[in-house]
Amino acid sequence: xxxxxxxxxxxxxxxxxxxxxxxxxxxxxxxxxxxxxxxxxxxxxxxxxxxxxxxxxxxxxxxxxxxxxxxxxxxxxxxxxxxxxxxxxxxxxxxxxxxxxxxxxxxxxxxxxxxxxxxxxxxxxxxxxxxxxxxxxxxxxxxxxxxxxxxxxxxxxxxxxxxxxxxxxxxxxxxxxxxxxxxxxxxxxxxxxxxxxxxxxxxxxxxxxxxxxxxxxxxxxxxxxxxxxxxxxxxxxxxxxxxxxxxxxxxxxxxxxxxxxxxxxxxxxxxxxxxxxxxxxx
Length: 282
Known about the structure:
The chain has helices spanning 7-19, 35-47, 75-84, 95-98, 117-120, 124-139, 151-163, 193-199, 201-214, 220-232; strands spanning 2-4, 24-29, 50-55, 89-91, 143-147, 169-173, 237-245, 260-268, 271-279. By secondary structure, the chain is α/β, with parallel strands linked by helices. It folds into 2 domains: 2-173, HUPs (Rossmann fold), CATH 3.40.50.620; 186-279, Pantoate--beta-alanine Ligase, Chain: A,domain 2 (2-Layer Sandwich), CATH 3.30.1300.10. The N and C termini lie far apart (47 Å).
């Protein structure tokens, strides 16, 4: 496994690999790798000749009062996991190489970036799309692997890839959960034992919404009201948003008469967690 820190070096190396007909899969991460990342890497290994994983805590997607400085960075463990899964190249850039002095260019996907998480985290998705655009240019993969847990991010990146004609296929793989339903997330490390128990209410709320829809409830407002009641029973839970949205435009829908996605963001103590569930109609 090669660990490369300089963008120009990995670009040159992967260009040579492509010229030899090698198929490249790419998994972008901010580190603190878990089984969710492992599932992406495993699928990438099955489908490609070379697998590249980037580890970069992207500063431009964090707000001024968010957890950039405290975000977990267990690099030794991350590299061990990459070796275990036989990753070919880990791209480990420094901020000064990704955002050199004088950097002023950003990529923004309008409309989609201002909804849901974007409403309470202004500028967040501009930071995400900017770094992903840079990484796609640096790595030049054939396939980009993302997780459904970050559903809005996946929709936005797919739109960016389409709008800007990036020659890459985007694969979105299912959310990986613990046996109790909690979606795997690097931020779960912030939770104490009691908070981890309270955090289970996110998946319970999503599951309740799915049951209601499957039993014929079509009024989105009533469904949201029911799952709000459930979440608010947890003392450490504070709801950021709950929404039932269209799968592509992420617009809220009032009547469940098509496939939809239930999305929520909830603070458990000081830790903001997100989760979602796609529900098929009919």
